[in-house]
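Board notes, transcribed. Complex of a protein with iron/sulfur cluster.
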Amino acid sequence: MTARDSRSLLEVLEHHYGDLESRESLGDGVPLTRVILLLLARGSKVRQATQVLERLQAEYVDWNELRVTPTYELRKHLRTLEHAAPAVASSKAEPADSSKEGRIAAPEVRADKADQIRELLSTVFNRFNKLSLDFMREGSSEPDAPRKRAKFSQWLEDHQPAIELMLASYCGGKMDPATSSLVQRVIQRIGWTRGKTGAVATRAALLAHGEGLPPLALQWRFAQLAAHVCHARTPECGACPVAASCAVGRKTVKPVKAKAPAAVRKTAARVRK
Ligand code: SF4
């Protein structure tokens, strides 16, 4: 892949998914709140996820009240959360017009998220006997913080690898997107690594093609790409915004030919007659 191709691909990713990359955009800084926002935003628009989060915070006294709320009730609060489907792949890797972005109401996505939030809250409560993740903060004075942190990170990594990495970066831990199997998988498909998918090859590819973007930005964009279209088993290349710049997408998606204007088509028809 040429440097130009890589740059185009990163521009498309930024256009579609580059909206959750600063500490400010992750809200009030409470680790548990951030994880919940990340869960809500994964595969959806950050603006909608933030609104849902604010609604939940207004509706419930605290996360413990939400923990004991029936899932069907939680799902109702997530009803405005859409699964943002990217525009159909363009033949050139240019940012698509956001007005053309598809939107599919996805009740199953909302149901998944409601289940994930309930599971997250139960796990935190059952394993740590409270609903606080303050031990994840940088310089936490909580006794046993490193052990709890490792334990919770492992749980998150098993469930939501991208979220674990993002949370670690926000809470002071070191983050290396190259160790994420999700990032390894996606960048191998787009062709930044050939054959190898390990951390070493991935790190080298990110350095070579990542345009110096911060790890968090790369992590979030690739995680969103994976959540929207580049699924582990069944990538939806036909709906992928970076198909034109992706090694797999170029093989599986035929470029859409631009339609000639109506006047030109009529003239061509007359000439044929
Ligand atoms: S074109 Fe297909 S394989 Fe490539 S990034 Fe998109 S979904 Fe993944």
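Strands lie at 83-85, 102-104. The first strand starts at residue 83 and ends at 85.
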